[in-house]
């Protein structure tokens, strides 16, 4: 139900679409009004009626349907400031915008052929976006122009948050880090996507020629728990912070769209694209440390970033194809670990991810 801002947006759309017609003809004919039935109204229509099937239908003076908020309901027919029949015309776009505002409707300019052959025969749950996108290339371009800038902002926010998490998680900064150690850790992390698994630090065996020094300052060897893909601390922390920590976060707003497999419909999983998006910027940060000292982005191209992103998506797909039940258990556990199924929580620390997952002692057989 549009409010003032949506009515204004609709006016701008109508101005672009109908403006040339008004300049030429000086009038905007109103031939008929089609509406969707509400869920309650659908039940009152015969099963054969389009309204009962969730399809739009034409109305006339016999229509008693009202639209609007509970305290501000208005009759859809007759439209305010408009007439039908021989005098069917309104000659000002302001009147058209007012009609939309008073009746809580929106204008969707399109050709009659497109409406009759496509929009009119599609259930109301899909008609406005999916079906319009299928038949209207210009509509897709407009939607893309709105979405892409938001994606860029989200990606930038992910990079800013995951950067210090990555450095801390792999102990790449600080007095004890050396260039050689960093290079070895990062090389192993990037090999075969090891970085997506939780890190387990093990004491390395003492060298024979430096036993005393090693005993006082034992070297830590990095291992990865390979039975928990995408449960690495920075991935969990970033998904929690950027998608679920606040009411306006995308994950919180659209949580109802999450779903589980047919075998476990009530055990949700995170969207594959969400997981891969965070993981690829985790990879990018690690890639900058390949030499042992951080070098700013430039060692890889945008094409390689996209290739890695698609590779991570393929990893998830292959995981499901290999063992769908096991893959679901792992991905549902990830859904729970990021706080998607509970009240918002503070951003997890790199250590707390292990507690949320209740891993306890690492499975020695799963370490790589």
How would you describe this protein?
The protein has 368 residues and is mainly alpha-helical. The chain folds into 2 domains: 4-135, no CATH class; 150-196 and 227-366, no CATH class. 49% of the residues lie in helices and 7% in strands. The protein has 14 helices and 6 strands. The chain has a two-stranded antiparallel sheet. Strands 3-4 form a two-stranded antiparallel sheet. α6 (137-169) crosses α11 (272-287) and α12 (302-322) packs across α13 (324-337). It is elongated. Residues 81-91 and 343-362 have low confidence and may be disordered.
Properties at a glance:
mainly alpha, 7% strand, two-stranded antiparallel sheet, 368 residues
What's the quick description here?
It comes from Favolaschia claudopus. It contains 14 helices and six strands.
Head-to-tail CA distance between termini:
55 Å
Major sheet details: 2 strands, antiparallel
Shape: elongated
The Rg value, from CA coordinates, equals 29 Å
State the helical fraction: 40-55%
Residue windows where pLDDT falls under 50 for at least 5 positions? 81-91, 343-362
Sheet/helix structural class:
mainly alpha
How many beta-strand runs?
6
Strand order of the largest sheet: 1-2
Order of helices and strands: HEHEEEHHHHHEHEHHHHHH
Query: Beta fraction of the residues?
Result: 5-15%
Domain module tally: 2
Number of helices: 14
Assembly type: single chain
Mean pLDDT, nearest integer?
76
Protein name: DUF6532 domain-containing protein
Organism: Favolaschia claudopus
Domain DUF6532: 116-318
Pfam family, one: DUF6532
